[in-house]
Write a structure and sequence with these properties.
mainly alpha
């Protein structure tokens, strides 16, 4: 566990300053792809799209109407990316924020890997691993995530005999990328600031009644 955390911290510290390139529409040439003969290439990111503040606020309103978030809960998200991802509501709100930016491939990949690691059935693991590969690792996928060549090659080899933890290295790299790139953007977004403001107001109102 200690070595895992050390490695994760190293990945975070070494994340590229231009990590936003993970959201660019691109294709790397001469890269081995498990599914080159089976997947079409009709869909691509529309990089001309920009984040919708309106859609963020509509999503936020839905959350506020369905559940009450405590100030302690919302504040914890700003103190730790790990706390944000551990919280079901936090994961959902972060995902919707990234969807509004058309840059949700990293969080979706991370969540898919977490779900895969909960599986025990070999046939299910094989099917889920193939789906994750086609959706996020294949160079033909419109939601391809940005991982280095060595990790990609390891994943390609592991597809011969898929396991529940076969994407661990790739998942760690994507975690580091989100920690450096997506997380700060989320904390600086109108969505999170509004959540924090409303939670603070609710907490003050509750205190005044006591």
């Amino acid at each position: 566990m200690a070595s895992h955390r050390t490695r994760l911290r190293r990945l975070i510290s070494q994340a590229s300053n231009d990590s936003s390139s993970a959201r660019l529409c691109r294709r790397r040439p001469n890269t081995c792809c498990f599914c080159c003969l089976t997947v079409g290439n009709e869909d691509r990111h529309d990089c001309s799209k920009t984040p919708s503040i309106i859609s963020q606020m509509e999503s936020l309103q839905t959350h506020e109407e369905s559940e009450i978030l405590s100030l302690e809960e919302v504040t914890a998200w700003s103190q730790s990316f790990e706390q944000l991802l551990k919280n079901p509501t936090g994961r959902k709100i972060l995902t919707e924020f990234l969807q509004s930016e058309h840059s949700d491939e990293n969080i979706l990949f991370w969540l898919a890997c977490e779900k895969l690691k909960q599986e025990d059935d070999k046939a299910t693991i094989t099917e889920m691993a193939k789906s994750i590969y086609l959706d996020y690792i294949s160079i033909l996928s419109p939601k391809e995530v940005s991982i280095d060549a060595n990790v990609r090659e390891t994943v390609n080899k592991n597809m011969v005999m898929p396991t529940a933890d076969m994407f661990d290295e790739a998942q760690m790299q994507i975690y580091a990328l989100m920690h450096r790139d997506s997380y700060p953007r989320f904390l600086n977004s109108p969505m999170y600031k509004s959540l924090l403001q409303n939670a603070t107001a609710s907490g003050n109102a509750l205190d005044s009644k006591l």
